[in-house]
Amino acid sequence: MKKGFIAIFLLIGSCKSTESINRFARSAGSGTAEINRSSFGFETFCREYEQGPLGRLTDTSLYGKSRLPVNHCAEYKTSDSLLRVINRTLGNYFDLLQSASDKKLLAYNARPLISSLADMQPRLLPALSFSDEKVTAVKGLLNTLLNEPLKYYRARKLKKIMQENDSALATVIGAYSFILDSALSGEAGQAAENYKSFVYARLYAWAVSPVEKAYVNDRYHDFLTEMEEEQQKIRKSVRLLETIRKDHHLLAFKEGKPEFRATETEITQDILLINKLIEEIIRLTK
Fold first, then answer.
1. Domain enclosing residue 273, as ranges
2. What is the pTM of this model?
3. Residue 137: how many CB atoms within 10 A of its CB?
4. 182-199 pLDDT, tens per residue?
5. Per-residue pLDDT averaged across 133-156, rounded?
6. Nearest CA to 151 among 2, 1, 19?
7. Residues 241-265 as b or e (16 or more Cβ within 10 Å = b)
């Protein structure tokens, strides 16, 4: 009787555990997908710095002898490719967590995750050392997870996977946040300065009538508004990513401990925050 009670208790606890992970993974996956969809990316700046249009403006003396911005289109394309690899890897990982924690025990196709890990390794962070052996180990854990009939053991396997991947996930999200918050945000700020120096100042000086000056001012205001909205999306995206990183760590190492009730409340609030940030990013993208 006592053993039966313990088994029921563990089963109920494990169901709740996987439910928390499922809700987290669903929101985290939606968040990373929205960041990927809404981000304007580095390559957008190629249009601002493209030599053809800038050359034509120079021919009309709007730029005078000012030095044109340096064109970094090749680097921008590489940077965007890197961001897509990072985003796809995160999305596949959260898809794994969501599918594996689903109560219906739906079969999960690990091929996208394995492909993402293998693709990310040589191009992103060699220090992570996602060797074939480690990728195979992840796949092996996944197979064990999906073949385990008891939810209690399934929850334990799932938590083990999260613990083993928590450090790598933190590194990947840290790299993603840095690229967005420093590099991409810096490019947006520089684009605003370049527009002011290379476009607005020259066009305004060239404009004669009040109507022309008003038109130049309106274009300048629209451009600054666009850049500010992009900066807001970046800030919200970084906050979303950092929240995901924190909650993954809490679920990996705090679940099952006496203080987890308070932790679970914190994660629930964070999920609401993630969903709110997603809505705000969508609003800024429209």
1. 2-285
2. 0.72
3. 12
4. 888 888 888 788 778 777
5. 61
6. 19
7. bebbbebbbbbbebbeeeebeebbe
